[in-house]
Amino acid sequence: MAKENISLLIIFISLSSIFYPALSRRPSATNITWWCSKTPHPEPCKYFLSRSHHRYTFKHRSDFRKIIVQVAIEQAHKAHDQVMEFGTNCENKHQKAAWSDCVKLYANTVLQLNRTLQGLKSDRSCTDFDAQTWLSTALTNIRTCQSGYMELNVSDFITPVMSNNLSQLISNSLAVNGVLLKRENVTYTNGFPSWLSGHERNLLESSSLEARANLVVATDGSGNYRTIQAAINAAARRRGSGRFIIHVKRGVYRENIEVGLNNNNIMLVGEGMRNTIITSGQSVGSGSTTYSSATAGIDGLHFMGRDITFQNTAGPLKGQAVALRSASDLSVFYRCAFQGYQDTLMVHSQRQFYKKCYIYGTIDFIFGNAAVVFQNCIIFVRKPLKGQANVITAQGRNDPFQNTAISIHSSRVLPANDLKPVVRNFKTYLGRPWQQYSRTVILKTYIDGFVSPLGWSTWSPGNNFALDTLFYGEYENYGPGSSTRHRVKWRGFHVITSPKVASQFTVGSLIAGRSWLPATASALMAMKLSVFLLFISLISFFAPALSSVASNGVDYWCSKTPHPEPCKYFMQQNSKHFAVPKQKSEFRRMAMSLALDRALTAQNHNKWLGSKCRNHKEKVAWADCLKLYQDTINQLNHTLDSNTKCTDFDAQTWLSTALTNLETCRAGFVELGVPDYVLPLMSNNVTKLISNTLALRNASTVPETYKGGFPSWVKPGDRKLLQTSPVRPNLVVAQDGSGNYRTIKAALDAAAKRTGSGRFVIHVKRGVYKENLEIGNKMKNIMLVGDGLRYTIITGSRSVGGGFTTFNSATVAVTGDGFIARGITFRNTAGPQNHQAVALRAGSDLSVFYQCGFEGYQDTLYVHSQRQFYKECYIYGTVDFIFGNAAVVLQNCMIYARRPMDKQKNVVTAQGRTDPNQNTGISIHNSRVMAAPDLVPVLSKFKTFLGRPWKEYSRTVYMQTYLDSLVDPAGWLEWSGNFALNTLFYGEYKNIGPAASTSGRVKWRGYRVITSATEASKFTVGSFITGNSWLPATGVPFRSGL
Known about the structure:
In the N-terminal section; belongs to the PMEI family. In the C-terminal section; belongs to the pectinesterase family. The chain is of the alpha/beta class. It has an eleven-stranded parallel sheet with strand order 1-2-5-8-11-14-17-20-23-25-26, with helices on one face. Strand 1, helix 9 and strand 2 form a beta-alpha-beta unit. Helix 4 (61-86) packs antiparallel against helix 8 and helix 16 (648-671) runs antiparallel to helix 17. The longest helix is centred in the N-terminal third of the chain and has 29 residues, at 93-121. The N and C termini lie far apart (87 Å).
């Protein structure tokens, strides 16, 4: 290579000579223009800094660095919100697929920027190289988003509205941080990174990992799970964040797996790359983006994979089809294989190491923008389509300050078996420039004779794109195709002759492997070369990802929650209002206050969204959400109120209700077929914050019970009301005019105006009352007393088919606490053809229904939330006709399955627990499950099941109940495929009758035949709804235990 060819080293030195002295000079504290003029993109820098609500002063270039990262974060949040809102404009599946990637990628960009700023602000800060990695990832995410639209030919849909300001602001951050990088010659012999515990150093080569696995996956059912994703999901719910080993037994696993952002330190261990195979067939040709086509997508930090093959079987005709996409920082793949054709291995971002791996493909089959080293790997080039050329790498560096590259070291480049017979028909190149600053180096590697003498290819024929700005290098390679005599003559190509230059691309330098890889026992072959570091290797690259914080810091407490990122973010945004907690109880209260604050913000935002509704259905679902968010605010206030004397079990109930409300809001849009517009604009941060509070307040022990005890909110005189005849009412309703009012609603309106909140009894005389009623949050301690369930009937006919949400279809809806009903039938006459149609929706805490009837078809009885008790009641329906997310016990009840529509199945329950810490479930005790008269003649034509999992942690138990012959031997039904089968809790205890045998029941992990009276007692009145502490005061007869 001619001396006049300026290497990247000289470019960097030149940039440094201009940039570094300029930043060293100290201007006046407020001279934004001066500071911004030293960045690659001064205009957006000046614009956003001058318009920020913060007042900035710059005493040092490190101050300026923090500030421009902060500004980038602010714009990233706005960009993410804009992307979320833009999803409503998607007109087809291609636009929707690309948009979905962008939502995820922009969220990851926000995370990387936050991670960088937190590290720079910390007293025990991250290294400058850590920051450069995370900033590089943030910028790569944005480029990946844009690529998705181009791949699916819908770039005209998004490009005109997506601003590049965020890219420019991140690029500025990279440039400033790049100048601040310190030059160090640091190596660590057998060193350990602080983020990796000592016992993990042998994990990758240990021969006895199976015995040390936390979970086992086996297709034959001999492990904890049958699918890898189920095990990964279970790992995500674990407490703590230490190394978590999942042993995947031999077998072909046909699934797409994803290890999410917060699921860190996962290790997948197979039984050999020939024996344990994860495979799928998604591709750009089938409508996925390259990003989302991955068989395995890895985002959680510190991932390790061993002895597994990742495969994409889409084939060469389907275009881009990824086997593995990795964006896991500090990740290792050892003795793994990656099989595909175009775009097999997407080394998307962050720092990665591949050892003794096999990679198969045709076009750009090692690509992305990570800082990645392949060592002792075999790269097999397969037979491409006719007219195609093979290209091994396509590195995606799009900013000169990104510290990313592909380094292939001590490996072998060979033709695969299908290419060997026709090897002369196809050209093969080492790489081509996917982005402007593409960087790839091949060191001490065997290159077989089928590689073109040119070595490298342009991105497209006759195109000079990036040929001057890329950096492609070769150092001491060998084999028939290693000669550099006829290599390309581009300005950016280098035959490396200096060990000092080559050393910057070794394990020791490019990914600072000596500082962390010895702890994984990957048998490194880091070259013993002196370390002359270019700007990609200026400090120890893999220092701790995030410094540990003191045990009383916010980060420490948030890391103990299921959703640490929103916890950290909003705590820091409200740091003036929250002192650093010293005890868990303080943090728990802070977390609830934070959830309440965000719920109030969300409610104000939701009110504004009403003007965005485009049609009646959207307006209906939106109206439900206003009501539900308001109730969530009430529940959080109730839990926080220092004047409220409550147990942990009380608090868990109210927090469970708060979370259920948000899920119900979402469901309304889905039910009415309008989930694509207003719903995406509703943030899920409130959901995650409430989930955190549930985890912190988890009442894991059986609550205390009190024989004959009274709750403070019930007067002693109430205990006999339910059995006393006649009842002395406050008001009487009669259609014939013989009472105070002719309609129940009029009586309820009068009750709402009463002074005080004591027990208020309304006697509803016999008659059919055609009205829809709502007994709201403020109407506490209402009691409706009828003349018997055959004589006093409240009926309506709202339904989803009629344009209502399930939530709003209820004939009677009750949310006021302490509600009691006796001797009344609640009915919905919409019929099975109108689908979901609720007779009663109950969200009243400590409510009782005694000798009542509930008649409908699909979704008859909506036990929405809170604690409820049903005694000697009759419930009629077809599909999911007892459903919701209350803590509810039905005792001595008659449950009648009716005749459904043709081809339908009857399902008695559909319990809706969405969080493992919710203390909710359906308990059916000492009752009877029977066929209704209209089902009896056609019983053989329709199957009936005890329940199916509406939500992921669905929980239902039948105890000492008579199950008639209509119940299918399997007992339970899937909701959709394998959804929730491992995470649900379905149990049966000492049931009787023709269908009570459990020998033919489902074999799901979450189903169990309960044999222990101790376990069964957890679902009785005394334990599950703490009935002994409040039911005696109502006078309803009940059985506390089994």
